[in-house]
Amino acid sequence: MRFITLCCYLVFWVNTGYVSANPIIATVGTYVTLRCKYDAGYYGRLPFCWGRGHIPNSGCGNEVIKSDGTKLLSRLSERYFLTGDLAMGEAFLTIKEVQESDSGIYGCRIDIPGWFNDQKYEVTLTVNPGRPFPIKVESREVRERTLTVRWTPPFDGGRPITAYKVALKYKYATWDTAKITEVAQTHLIQVTLVDLRPAKTYNLRMFAVNSVGMSEASNVLIFTTKEAAPEGPPVDVQLQALSSYSIKVIWKPPNVELRNGVLHSYIISYREYDRVALQFQKLQQLSVTATREEESTILTNLNPSTQYSVLVQAKTNAGAGPASTTSFCSTLDEVKETTAATTLLSLTTASTKLTQYTTPTNVKETTPATTLLSSTAASTKLMHTTTLTKAHTTSTGTISTSTVREQSTLQSTHLTTVPPDPPVVGLKEVIDNTISLFWTPGFEGNSPITGFYLEYKAANASWDYTKAIVDFSSNETDATIIEINPSTYNIRMFAKNSMGTSKASNVLIVTIEDR
Fold first, then answer.
1. Which parts of the sequence belong to the Ig-like domain (predicted)?
2. DSSP 8-class letter at 477
3. Residue pair 183/264 in contact by the 8 Å Cβ criterion
4. Of residues 197, 216, 209, the one with CA closest to residue 156
């Protein structure tokens, strides 16, 4: 009896069909396939199941998926699905976007007809956290000196994202030269880069960071900032008097880095000096098409022996830049040729002038007709004045009512064109190169606020030389901007509605330190 029992146990052990595979190590967020296979050519198609934990005596414990060998019968969730060729006996289980909680033992049971001959397969799956997935970044708005980008937070790899990194470079530079800015505010999905150069092509890409590491690079944005008016004046301006009536102007374009776009023309401003009044007269202007690296033009129809001042400005499609230093030049003296004809003309002119001087010039002859006409005109003027006075006297009430009505209309019109009050802007924090702002809208005026815009400049510059203007919608009340050049800056904001623009807000003074 003992022998039979022992044999039974031995048979059971031999026919359990356990197969143990090497452990599988995967990373959070990836797809993992667990393989289990039987000889479908010999057995035909057989039912099978997958479960979590060791395989029990029958069925699959904690079953996650089940098939009759031809189709899917059931599954725990849509994250589990069958892959492989069922006709070939490939009972593969694929788990979609595995998590650390998916780690553990998985068992596959192939239901082979007969006693104690099911095929069993076990594998241990270990899922480790990984780096975040790459970001998908897109541009929202490109202006002369700013770029606003937006992205969708990627899968974090099983560990919270701790920062984003923004890499920016000129198009033809290598990524080794890129300026890297770390954005520690992980809740953000949009930032604005400021202090870019106009009419320049840049490349931008981003990374996500967690405790495991940094993601692969995002897609690369290639963008070109818009043109701006030149920042520098034309250089090497020279003037040359060609004749008594013309001056030649020669100059070179502004430095390449200060052109801010394609130069299409120049404005030549000039005016003559009045020696009697001791001042320059009205400014005259001439437009010259930009064609080469050394330009020239000739000012004509000038006066002889006269001093002129000349300024030159370069111009792009965005506007004209600053003027060059004022240059001065005098036309040549006029040379007169004396001939017999000229002498005769001079004598004739002198004789004519003598005759004019001997004729009384201030004596007026008074005739009765003239006296009558003067008297009539005076009478008409008197009557007209009297009539106006009477009209004013008899219509005082009417005129006053009309005046009040006009004043009321003007006041009403004024009341319906009230722009909003300026917002109050505050500073959340400054981390490395990122500046986080918030603002509180003021009274919206007689029309809803339609948006806000931010002005941004170097602290030692005038607001006339604003570095950046960034627009925001009416429902935005905070923003984060990235300054790529360390320095001290001033920031202010404005509100807009259909009636106009508010006055400037308070001014923030922000310093970006060199790291």
1. 29-128
2. -
3. no
4. 209
Task: Using the CB atoms, write b or e for 311-349: b if 16+ within 10 Å.
Answer: bbbbbbebeebbbbeebebbbbeeeeeeeeeeeeeeeee
Q: What is the 3-state secondary structure (H, E, C) of 101-115?
A: HHCEEEEEEECCCCC
| 216: Cβ contacts below 8 Å, ≥ 6 apart | 131, 134, 207
Q: What is the dihedral of CA 82, 84, 89, 92, to 10 degrees?
A: -50
Are the C-beta atoms of 237 and 325 separated by less than 8 Å? yes
Q: What is the DSSP letter of 57?
A: S
Q: Residue 157 has which token pair? A: 């790899």
How many Cα atoms are found within 13 Å in the side-chain-facing hemisphere of 77? 7
Alpha carbon distance 91, 506 (integer Å): 69
Three-class DSSP labels, 138-194: EEEEECCCCEEEEEECCCCCCCCCCEEEEEEEECCCCHHHCEEEEECCCCCCEEEEE
Q: Are 69 and 82 in contact (CB under 8 A)?
A: no
CA-wise closest residue to 48 among 105, 99, 120: 120
**pLDDT tens digits for 27-40?**
999 999 999 999 99
pTM of the model: 0.68
Q: How far apart are CA 66 and CA 75, in angstroms?
A: 6
Contacts of 21 (CB under 8 A, 6+ apart): 35, 121, 122, 123
pLDDT score recorded for residue 417: 75
Q: Which amino acid is at 396?
A: T
pLDDT at residue number 277: 81
Task: Indicate the helix (H) or strand (E) that contains 205.
Answer: strand 201-209
d(CA 50, CA 62): 8
> What would the pLDDT profile of 408-424 be if each residue is shown by its tens digit?
444 444 455 788 999 99
* 472-479 contacts, C-beta under 8 A, 24 or more apart: 474/448, 474/449, 474/450, 476/452, 477/438, 477/439, 477/440, 477/441, 478/428, 478/436, 478/437, 478/438, 478/439, 479/190, 479/192, 479/436, 479/437, 479/454
Mean pLDDT, all residues of the chain: 82
